[in-house]
Amino acid sequence: MLGNEEQERNKLESSNNSLTITDNRTGLTYALPIVDGTVNALLFKNITIPGQLEGIRIFDPAYQNTAVVRSSICYIDGEKGVLEYRGYPIEQLAEKSTFLEVAYLLIYGDLPDADQLKDWSDQVMRHTFVHVNFNELMKSFNYDAHPMGMFISSLAVMSTFHPEANPSLVDNDIFIKDEKIRNKQFKRILGKVTTIAANAYRHRIGRPFNLPQNHMTYTENFLYMMDRLAEKDYRPNQRLSRILDILFILHADHELNCSTAAMRHIGSSLVDPYSACAGAASALYGPLHGGANEAVLRMLEEIKDPSNVSEFLIQFYVIRLVFDIVGREPLIDVAVELERQALEDDYFVSRKLYPNVDFYSGLIYKAMGFPTDFFPVLFAIPRVAGWLAHWKESLSDPQSKIWRPRQIYSGEKTRDYVEINKRIPTGINLTKSDGHPYNKRSYVATFSK
């Protein structure tokens, strides 16, 4: 920590590439370099007053204006409608690419050549099979378990089936040291998440699981595992498979959102990628994130009529592509009216509250016949590619450390323990039934403990 005299000797002159700060407590002036539009928060630790050991901390609830990593994976400008993966516009990728090709791009940084893509796709598809005991575990879920709950739990369980990929059992730095083992996890996880998702769907509707068909494309196989009953040579509709592939491309990565930040946060402990993906999926499950698809569809079903939409916000997307195949979804009329009114409403326009992808994605999934509670799973499958890309990037980042956000303590000062007979009631009222393992009838029964 710099002393006051040394601080004065080392004061930086302000320039076009620095931020000048005057500490009114001491009168000292500091010039902090601006790099890529940011200031290094650690430099604020040098801003102290006599007798103070620690300098200033930056208070930023929910990381609203804090950059915590440097990343070359995804670029988003919501106001301009820009989404790019590794510099490639999403429009070009959606038109010309496939999801597995985009997954390769996100993870490895460049588009594969023909041989690389074939090898990559073949290996991912070979990893769609899961252990028979894994299937038995999935069958043990309750009949009405939410598909996303099954998906999250199964991701976490997957780590127990691959102990050779568990840093706690092998080597703390296994994924940093061994590129081969790291690469295998990408193929293994991308391959198996479609099987997990399809199994969750089948379990929910009481049907037996289908074995993967690794000669099909990624989305064809997924739809096959979900929908095939006993038909011979069953093949999903090719156009629907392609539309689902496009949706997977669009959802593969959206920069450092809540779930991706969770993936990096958990991964910074060097835990296995299955556990980190389960944590990221848990973040995605929330109604303010991936659960928005499900929540918005339920909202639309409640509105029902286009005349009741003035307080809702949406964005039009690619749903008309589906109508030609499976028929028109009536809720599209509500969606269109929602978007029109939202884009004309001063409340939304003045606050730059523009429509987002979640709403129309949900309409597309609904039009394709997916149940509403399955939407978060459909969002999670492609996002795994983005999570793994960020996980890989973090492993090679020389500035990477275990994430440890700081807090501002606002609790009680140091106080002495109070004996129970001298404590003053706090006003917290716990009813007799809170936490009780029995039902109401048990309260009036007599029994021995």
Automatic annotation (TrEMBL):
<protein>
    <recommendedName>
        <fullName>Citrate synthase</fullName>
    </recommendedName>
</protein>
<dbReference type="InterPro" id="IPR016142">
    <property type="entry name" value="Citrate_synth-like_lrg_a-sub"/>
</dbReference>
<keyword id="KW-0012">Acyltransferase</keyword>
<dbReference type="InterPro" id="IPR024176">
    <property type="entry name" value="Citrate_synthase_bac-typ"/>
</dbReference>
<dbReference type="InterPro" id="IPR002020">
    <property type="entry name" value="Citrate_synthase"/>
</dbReference>
<dbReference type="InterPro" id="IPR036969">
    <property type="entry name" value="Citrate_synthase_sf"/>
</dbReference>
<dbReference type="GO" id="GO:0046912">
    <property type="term" value="F:acyltransferase activity, acyl groups converted into alkyl on transfer"/>
</dbReference>
<keyword id="KW-0808">Transferase</keyword>
<comment type="similarity">
    <text>Belongs to the citrate synthase family.</text>
</comment>
<dbReference type="Pfam" id="PF00285">
    <property type="entry name" value="Citrate_synt"/>
</dbReference>
<dbReference type="GO" id="GO:0006099">
    <property type="term" value="P:tricarboxylic acid cycle"/>
</dbReference>
<dbReference type="InterPro" id="IPR016143">
    <property type="entry name" value="Citrate_synth-like_sm_a-sub"/>
</dbReference>
